[in-house]
Amino acid sequence: MRRHFGPTVLTIAAVTGVVTFSLVASAPAGTAASRPSSAYGITATGQVPVAKTPYVESPDGKRHTSAALELPQNPLIALRAGNASAGNDSASVELFDLTVGPDLLKQIKIPPDLKQKCATLPATGAGDLPIPELPLPDLGLPLPKLSTKDLPVKNLPDLCNLLLTPPSSLLAIDSVNVYCTGDSGAVDIGSLTLLGQKLALPSTKQTVVIPAAPLAKITVNEQSKGSDGSFTITALTIDLGNGAEVIKLASATCAKPAAKPTPKPTHQPTIPQPTEPGNVPPAPVPKPVKTHHAVTG
């Protein structure tokens, strides 16, 4: 009896606030990994929770992909585009144009006396002027109470430039890429700025923490191994307010693949080799057979 297998099914799913495309393929039984490999672009826990977007997993060992053109509506994180893929013992993520805390400093009202100081700064020698300590208003983010001395500036001219021409976000990243294969992986992060100041990210294969307290603590290339043999690598973890909000960007998990079943040996019947014409093998020597015949008379 002939079996018929259904074609690969292409599903297009729309989730509230998220545009996601998933490619789902059928797989034969016995080839699935012991735990699905998976990947996600962004997730956040804390005062502003954000579900894993885009998210994909491979329950059957086949390659699956998911893409997001925007995130669920939230006041904290924005994204232009993201892609995630997962297969048998492999996973990867790509993110583009990500911002945390959009238009954050535009909410700050500069005191009149500070505006006056900024307007009368001398052309030379202003680099020695100290930063005045002024409280900053509640910015609507899970951050501690901040003052002007908590901002990433070195002197009064830097502070004036930051407040009078504020950057578009607290944190901005132009691209993030991560992948894993088996029990190893790598991270590639483009330009990253904190309140308009570019941060130099180390090129390392190990986990590195960049303290920028009290605004944010950034962990780069965080790696871990699960008790089931899985391997997870996360490109960036951003801790705001000492755990009040934790954002994870670009995470890939490679599951330990299941052992493939060993095929059972099959008996091959012996097939006599053909002989060439005129080359007839000799007949076997006959053997005498003892028997008895009935006696009649």
Tally of separate helices? 2
What is the approximate shape? rod-shaped
Structural class: mainly beta
Main pleated sheet: 9 strands, antiparallel
Binned, the helix content reads under 10%
Task: Give the tally of β-strands.
Answer: 15
Report the β-strand fraction as a percent range. 35-45%
N/C terminus separation: 65 Å
pLDDT average, as an integer? 78
Give the H and E element order.
EEEEEEEHHEEEEEEEE
Radius of gyration equals: 34 Å
**Unreliable segments of 5+ consecutive residues:** 1-33
Walkthrough of the structure:
The chain is mainly β. It has helices at residues 112-119, 156-164, and strands at residues 9-15, 18-24, 37-46, 50-58, 64-68, 77-87, 90-102, 169-181, 184-189, 192-194, 197-198, 208-212, 216-225, 231-240, 245-254. The protein contains two helices and 15 strands.
